[in-house]
Amino acid sequence: MTKLNSEILNSAFxxxxxxxxxxxxxxxxxxxxxxxxxxxxxxxxYASFRNDAQAYAEMGEEPGNFPNGVIVxxxxxxxxxxxxxxxxxxxxxxxxxxxxPIKPDNSGQPVWFxxxxxx
Length: 119
Prior knowledge:
Blueprint: E1 2-4, E2 7-9, E3 12-17, H1 19-25, E4 30-33, E5 42-51, H2 53-59, E6 70-82, E7 88-102, E8 112-113
Parallel strand pairs: 3-5
Antiparallel strand pairs: 1-2, 3-8, 4-7, 5-6, 6-7
């Protein structure tokens, strides 16, 4: 497991780029999902291999400008509410970027996964 700020974390959620970057910048304060989460703690943010070209264009960036297939940082999930448009809104706060992205031991999954094997 990896240690960050005296907390032992070993849970990550996957998000496409550039949304992972937007979370790290504190721009993206909600993660929209079809599933509810009861998590209310700090978790890793895994930038999946998938990119959203339209979101890159809206940021004035190009796919490949941000890392993929790595954990880029952590964020707190502080609440989860129903999205009026359908699904759920995970409320995100206090993003912390890692000094360097970390390749997880285990492959990213569509939502939650355990990124590091216990040592």
